[in-house]
Amino acid sequence: xxxxxxxxxxxxxxxxxxxxxxxxxxxxxxxxxxxxxxxxxxxxxxxxxxxxxxxxxxxxxxxxxxxxxxxxxxxxxxxxxxxxxxxxxxxxxxxxxxxxxxxxxxxxxxxxxxxxxx
Length: 118
Description:
By secondary structure, the chain is mainly alpha-helical. It has 5 helices and no strands.
């Protein structure tokens, strides 16, 4: 049976931003431990939270007040279960997390190109 939570009215991007703020506050240096290649918010072992702490189902009750809290922070879908809605929501959450955590052009190291003088 799918478990429905009360949608907060926040956009996917706002939820992910809230999740990032939460991690910045509670887990300094967390970004270096996230593998964007395997990041999948729908997967119990590959979501951002699980990459930091272990399986989501094993530790979420310790870290969050409720599943509602986890969903508000972009770690969990409001429509949990194997429904088309939850599948779409998890895909959108994963995309938003990857976009938010992808290196920005300004963050890439500058590598000077040396040319021989003519």
